[in-house]
Design goal:
By secondary structure, the protein is α/β, with parallel strands linked by helices. The protein is built from ten helices and twelve strands. It has one domain (2-214, 256-291): Alpha-Beta Barrel (TIM Barrel). 38% of the residues lie in helices and 18% in strands. This is Aldo/keto reductase.
Length: 314
Amino acid sequence: MGMGVSQFGNLFRETSDEISASAVTRARAAGIRYFDTAPHYGLGLSERRLGAGLRGVARDEYTLSTKVGRLLVESPETADQLDPEGFIVPASVKRVWDFSREGVLRSVEASLARLSTDRLDIVYLHDPDDFWAEASTTGLDALIELRDQGVVGAVGAGMNQADMLADFVERTDVDVVMVAGRFTLLDQTALTRLLPAAADRGVGVVAAAVYNSGLLSSPTVSDDAHFDYGQASRPTIERARSIASVCERFGVPLPAAAVQYPLRHPAVVSVVLGTRTAEHVDSNLERFHTPIPDELWAELDASGLAPDPIGTLR
Protein backbone atom coordinates (compact mmCIF):
# COMPACT_ATOMS: atom_id res chain seq x y z
CA MET A 1 0.00 0.00 0.00
CA GLY A 2 1.24 3.45 -0.93
CA MET A 3 0.36 6.82 0.57
CA GLY A 4 -0.79 9.61 -1.73
CA VAL A 5 -0.41 13.06 -0.25
CA SER A 6 -2.30 15.46 -2.51
CA GLN A 7 -4.23 16.49 0.60
CA PHE A 8 -0.99 17.73 2.17
CA GLY A 9 -1.36 20.55 -0.37
CA ASN A 10 -4.55 21.85 1.32
CA LEU A 11 -6.84 20.11 -1.16
CA PHE A 12 -10.33 21.62 -0.66
CA ARG A 13 -9.50 22.64 2.93
CA GLU A 14 -6.50 23.70 4.94
CA THR A 15 -4.39 21.34 6.98
CA SER A 16 -1.17 21.97 8.91
CA ASP A 17 2.50 21.05 8.81
CA GLU A 18 2.05 19.21 12.11
CA ILE A 19 -0.90 17.11 10.90
CA SER A 20 0.99 16.17 7.74
CA ALA A 21 4.12 15.23 9.69
CA SER A 22 2.13 13.07 12.10
CA ALA A 23 0.53 11.24 9.16
CA VAL A 24 3.95 10.42 7.70
CA THR A 25 5.21 9.27 11.11
CA ARG A 26 2.18 7.02 11.61
CA ALA A 27 2.55 5.58 8.11
CA ARG A 28 6.21 4.74 8.60
CA ALA A 29 5.53 3.16 11.98
CA ALA A 30 2.85 1.00 10.35
CA GLY A 31 5.21 -0.21 7.62
CA ILE A 32 4.18 1.99 4.70
CA ARG A 33 7.21 2.68 2.53
CA TYR A 34 5.83 4.24 -0.66
CA PHE A 35 4.90 7.94 -0.78
CA ASP A 36 3.52 9.74 -3.85
CA THR A 37 3.23 13.47 -4.46
CA ALA A 38 3.43 16.07 -7.26
CA PRO A 39 4.21 19.77 -7.78
CA HIS A 40 0.56 20.21 -8.82
CA TYR A 41 -0.63 19.39 -5.29
CA GLY A 42 -0.85 22.71 -3.50
CA LEU A 43 1.62 24.43 -5.85
CA GLY A 44 4.53 22.61 -4.22
CA LEU A 45 3.17 22.57 -0.65
CA SER A 46 2.53 18.81 -0.69
CA GLU A 47 6.12 18.13 -1.73
CA ARG A 48 7.50 20.44 0.96
CA ARG A 49 5.40 18.86 3.69
CA LEU A 50 6.24 15.33 2.60
CA GLY A 51 9.93 16.20 2.47
CA ALA A 52 9.75 17.63 5.98
CA GLY A 53 7.95 14.54 7.25
CA LEU A 54 10.65 12.25 5.84
CA ARG A 55 13.58 14.39 6.98
CA GLY A 56 16.00 12.36 9.03
CA VAL A 57 14.77 9.03 7.67
CA ALA A 58 17.42 6.95 5.90
CA ARG A 59 16.89 7.46 2.17
CA ASP A 60 16.92 3.75 1.34
CA GLU A 61 14.05 3.11 3.77
CA TYR A 62 11.29 4.51 1.58
CA THR A 63 10.21 4.84 -2.05
CA LEU A 64 9.37 8.33 -3.26
CA SER A 65 7.55 9.36 -6.42
CA THR A 66 6.60 12.71 -7.87
CA LYS A 67 5.58 14.03 -11.28
CA VAL A 68 6.54 16.37 -14.11
CA GLY A 69 4.61 18.23 -16.78
CA ARG A 70 3.10 21.02 -14.70
CA LEU A 71 6.05 23.35 -14.21
CA LEU A 72 5.65 25.89 -11.41
CA VAL A 73 6.68 29.42 -12.39
CA GLU A 74 6.57 32.65 -10.41
CA SER A 75 3.31 34.59 -10.74
CA PRO A 76 3.47 37.79 -8.70
CA GLU A 77 0.39 39.15 -10.48
CA THR A 78 -1.78 36.45 -8.82
CA ALA A 79 -0.02 36.27 -5.45
CA ASP A 80 -2.98 37.94 -3.71
CA GLN A 81 -5.38 35.27 -5.00
CA LEU A 82 -5.99 31.63 -4.09
CA ASP A 83 -5.08 28.76 -6.37
CA PRO A 84 -8.01 28.17 -8.75
CA GLU A 85 -7.62 24.38 -8.89
CA GLY A 86 -8.99 23.40 -5.49
CA PHE A 87 -5.94 23.83 -3.28
CA ILE A 88 -6.27 26.42 -0.51
CA VAL A 89 -2.90 28.09 -1.10
CA PRO A 90 -1.80 31.49 -2.42
CA ALA A 91 -1.37 31.56 -6.19
CA SER A 92 2.13 33.04 -5.95
CA VAL A 93 3.20 30.55 -8.60
CA LYS A 94 1.24 29.11 -11.50
CA ARG A 95 1.27 25.83 -13.38
CA VAL A 96 2.56 25.82 -16.95
CA TRP A 97 2.26 22.70 -19.07
CA ASP A 98 5.80 21.78 -20.13
CA PHE A 99 7.06 18.39 -21.29
CA SER A 100 10.18 19.79 -22.95
CA ARG A 101 13.61 18.58 -21.88
CA GLU A 102 14.34 21.86 -20.15
CA GLY A 103 10.95 21.90 -18.47
CA VAL A 104 11.35 18.35 -17.15
CA LEU A 105 14.86 19.01 -15.86
CA ARG A 106 13.75 22.24 -14.15
CA SER A 107 10.76 20.49 -12.61
CA VAL A 108 12.82 17.62 -11.23
CA GLU A 109 15.42 20.00 -9.83
CA ALA A 110 12.73 22.01 -8.04
CA SER A 111 11.06 18.87 -6.70
CA LEU A 112 14.35 17.59 -5.32
CA ALA A 113 14.75 20.88 -3.43
CA ARG A 114 11.20 20.89 -2.06
CA LEU A 115 11.47 17.23 -1.03
CA SER A 116 14.94 17.74 0.51
CA THR A 117 16.40 14.74 -1.29
CA ASP A 118 19.05 14.05 -3.92
CA ARG A 119 17.17 11.38 -5.86
CA LEU A 120 13.68 10.26 -6.78
CA ASP A 121 12.65 6.63 -6.99
CA ILE A 122 9.89 7.19 -9.55
CA VAL A 123 8.95 10.17 -11.70
CA TYR A 124 5.71 10.11 -13.68
CA LEU A 125 4.71 12.29 -16.64
CA HIS A 126 1.62 13.91 -15.09
CA ASP A 127 -1.61 13.83 -17.12
CA PRO A 128 -0.08 14.22 -20.60
CA ASP A 129 -3.48 13.61 -22.27
CA ASP A 130 -3.15 16.55 -24.66
CA PHE A 131 0.62 16.32 -25.06
CA TRP A 132 1.38 12.82 -26.34
CA ALA A 133 3.87 13.93 -29.01
CA GLU A 134 6.03 15.92 -26.61
CA ALA A 135 5.57 13.80 -23.49
CA SER A 136 6.39 10.51 -25.23
CA THR A 137 9.55 11.92 -26.83
CA THR A 138 11.32 14.89 -25.26
CA GLY A 139 9.61 14.52 -21.89
CA LEU A 140 10.28 10.84 -21.50
CA ASP A 141 13.75 11.12 -23.03
CA ALA A 142 14.65 13.65 -20.34
CA LEU A 143 13.45 11.33 -17.61
CA ILE A 144 15.38 8.42 -19.12
CA GLU A 145 18.47 10.64 -19.17
CA LEU A 146 17.98 11.26 -15.44
CA ARG A 147 17.39 7.56 -14.91
CA ASP A 148 20.69 6.77 -16.62
CA GLN A 149 22.40 9.30 -14.32
CA GLY A 150 20.89 7.71 -11.20
CA VAL A 151 18.94 10.82 -10.22
CA VAL A 152 15.70 8.95 -10.99
CA GLY A 153 15.19 5.27 -10.34
CA ALA A 154 12.20 4.55 -12.59
CA VAL A 155 10.15 6.51 -15.13
CA GLY A 156 6.58 6.38 -16.30
CA ALA A 157 3.29 8.22 -16.65
CA GLY A 158 0.32 8.85 -14.40
CA MET A 159 -3.12 9.49 -15.86
CA ASN A 160 -6.88 9.24 -15.36
CA GLN A 161 -7.22 7.21 -18.56
CA ALA A 162 -6.00 3.77 -19.55
CA ASP A 163 -5.62 3.93 -23.33
CA MET A 164 -2.73 6.39 -23.50
CA LEU A 165 -1.03 4.60 -20.62
CA ALA A 166 -1.25 1.45 -22.73
CA ASP A 167 0.40 3.39 -25.56
CA PHE A 168 3.23 4.34 -23.22
CA VAL A 169 3.65 0.71 -22.15
CA GLU A 170 3.54 -0.67 -25.69
CA ARG A 171 5.60 2.00 -27.46
CA THR A 172 8.08 3.49 -24.99
CA ASP A 173 10.64 2.51 -22.36
CA VAL A 174 8.60 3.13 -19.20
CA ASP A 175 9.14 1.15 -16.01
CA VAL A 176 5.86 1.85 -14.22
CA VAL A 177 2.56 3.64 -14.78
CA MET A 178 -0.04 5.02 -12.38
CA VAL A 179 -3.65 4.58 -13.46
CA ALA A 180 -6.22 6.63 -11.54
CA GLY A 181 -9.83 5.50 -11.43
CA ARG A 182 -9.68 3.13 -14.39
CA PHE A 183 -9.12 -0.09 -12.46
CA THR A 184 -11.71 -0.16 -9.70
CA LEU A 185 -14.77 -2.10 -8.66
CA LEU A 186 -16.79 0.24 -10.88
CA ASP A 187 -14.44 0.80 -13.83
CA GLN A 188 -12.27 -1.92 -15.34
CA THR A 189 -11.19 -0.01 -18.46
CA ALA A 190 -7.57 -0.89 -17.72
CA LEU A 191 -8.30 -4.60 -18.18
CA THR A 192 -8.78 -4.18 -21.93
CA ARG A 193 -5.27 -3.10 -23.01
CA LEU A 194 -3.23 -1.60 -20.22
CA LEU A 195 -2.96 -4.48 -17.79
CA PRO A 196 -2.33 -7.19 -20.42
CA ALA A 197 0.36 -5.02 -22.02
CA ALA A 198 1.96 -4.24 -18.66
CA ALA A 199 1.99 -7.91 -17.68
CA ASP A 200 3.49 -8.86 -21.04
CA ARG A 201 6.26 -6.22 -20.91
CA GLY A 202 7.03 -6.39 -17.20
CA VAL A 203 5.83 -2.84 -16.48
CA GLY A 204 4.50 -2.23 -12.99
CA VAL A 205 1.06 -0.69 -12.54
CA VAL A 206 0.18 1.49 -9.56
CA ALA A 207 -3.58 1.78 -8.98
CA ALA A 208 -4.85 5.09 -7.61
CA ALA A 209 -8.26 6.73 -7.06
CA VAL A 210 -9.72 3.32 -6.20
CA TYR A 211 -12.79 4.96 -4.61
CA ASN A 212 -13.71 6.73 -7.89
CA SER A 213 -13.93 10.16 -6.20
CA GLY A 214 -15.75 8.89 -3.13
CA LEU A 215 -18.49 6.60 -4.38
CA LEU A 216 -16.72 3.53 -2.97
CA SER A 217 -15.27 5.17 0.13
CA SER A 218 -18.12 4.38 2.55
CA PRO A 219 -19.83 1.09 3.44
CA THR A 220 -23.14 2.61 2.31
CA VAL A 221 -23.63 4.62 -0.88
CA SER A 222 -25.45 7.93 -0.50
CA ASP A 223 -27.74 9.56 -3.08
CA ASP A 224 -25.33 12.48 -3.45
CA ALA A 225 -22.19 10.35 -3.89
CA HIS A 226 -19.54 11.52 -6.33
CA PHE A 227 -18.04 9.55 -9.22
CA ASP A 228 -15.09 10.82 -11.25
CA TYR A 229 -15.20 14.34 -9.78
CA GLY A 230 -18.92 14.88 -10.33
CA GLN A 231 -22.34 13.78 -9.13
CA ALA A 232 -22.75 10.05 -9.72
CA SER A 233 -25.52 8.95 -12.06
CA ARG A 234 -28.42 6.92 -10.71
CA PRO A 235 -27.32 3.71 -12.54
CA THR A 236 -23.80 4.08 -11.16
CA ILE A 237 -25.12 4.57 -7.62
CA GLU A 238 -27.36 1.52 -7.93
CA ARG A 239 -24.48 -0.60 -9.23
CA ALA A 240 -22.30 0.52 -6.34
CA ARG A 241 -25.09 -0.40 -3.93
CA SER A 242 -25.38 -3.83 -5.49
CA ILE A 243 -21.64 -4.36 -4.98
CA ALA A 244 -21.98 -3.10 -1.40
CA SER A 245 -24.77 -5.62 -0.78
CA VAL A 246 -22.57 -8.50 -1.91
CA CYS A 247 -19.78 -7.24 0.33
CA GLU A 248 -22.16 -6.96 3.28
CA ARG A 249 -23.29 -10.57 2.89
CA PHE A 250 -19.67 -11.62 3.35
CA GLY A 251 -19.09 -9.23 6.25
CA VAL A 252 -16.70 -7.06 4.23
CA PRO A 253 -17.01 -3.25 4.10
CA LEU A 254 -17.29 -1.87 0.56
CA PRO A 255 -14.16 0.36 0.92
CA ALA A 256 -12.03 -2.66 1.90
CA ALA A 257 -13.07 -4.48 -1.26
CA ALA A 258 -12.36 -1.32 -3.28
CA VAL A 259 -8.84 -1.11 -1.88
CA GLN A 260 -7.97 -4.75 -2.43
CA TYR A 261 -9.67 -5.38 -5.78
CA PRO A 262 -6.89 -3.96 -8.02
CA LEU A 263 -4.23 -5.98 -6.23
CA ARG A 264 -5.74 -9.19 -7.56
CA HIS A 265 -4.08 -8.52 -10.92
CA PRO A 266 -0.38 -9.55 -10.94
CA ALA A 267 0.68 -6.47 -12.93
CA VAL A 268 -0.49 -4.20 -10.10
CA VAL A 269 2.44 -3.56 -7.77
CA SER A 270 0.78 -1.07 -5.42
CA VAL A 271 -2.46 0.64 -4.56
CA VAL A 272 -2.02 4.28 -3.51
CA LEU A 273 -4.56 5.74 -1.09
CA GLY A 274 -5.00 9.44 -0.42
CA THR A 275 -4.16 10.51 3.12
CA ARG A 276 -4.41 13.71 5.15
CA THR A 277 -4.11 12.62 8.80
CA ALA A 278 -2.75 9.86 11.01
CA GLU A 279 -6.34 8.68 11.44
CA HIS A 280 -6.61 8.30 7.66
CA VAL A 281 -3.51 6.11 7.77
CA ASP A 282 -5.15 3.84 10.34
CA SER A 283 -8.37 3.64 8.33
CA ASN A 284 -6.52 2.85 5.09
CA LEU A 285 -4.51 0.12 6.77
CA GLU A 286 -7.63 -1.44 8.25
CA ARG A 287 -9.19 -1.61 4.81
CA PHE A 288 -5.99 -2.93 3.27
CA HIS A 289 -5.74 -5.76 5.82
CA THR A 290 -9.42 -6.75 6.03
CA PRO A 291 -9.73 -10.49 5.24
CA ILE A 292 -11.75 -11.01 2.06
CA PRO A 293 -12.85 -14.52 1.07
CA ASP A 294 -12.39 -15.67 -2.50
CA GLU A 295 -16.11 -16.38 -2.61
CA LEU A 296 -16.85 -12.64 -2.55
CA TRP A 297 -14.77 -12.04 -5.67
CA ALA A 298 -16.36 -15.07 -7.31
CA GLU A 299 -19.87 -13.77 -6.65
CA LEU A 300 -19.06 -10.29 -7.96
CA ASP A 301 -17.66 -11.94 -11.08
CA ALA A 302 -20.57 -14.35 -11.60
CA SER A 303 -23.15 -11.60 -11.09
CA GLY A 304 -21.49 -9.38 -13.68
CA LEU A 305 -20.89 -6.60 -11.16
CA ALA A 306 -17.07 -6.74 -11.29
CA PRO A 307 -14.92 -9.28 -13.17
CA ASP A 308 -12.34 -11.05 -11.05
CA PRO A 309 -8.96 -9.91 -12.42
CA ILE A 310 -7.51 -13.33 -11.68
CA GLY A 311 -10.22 -14.91 -13.80
CA THR A 312 -9.41 -12.66 -16.75
CA LEU A 313 -5.93 -14.19 -16.92
CA ARG A 314 -7.18 -17.69 -17.63
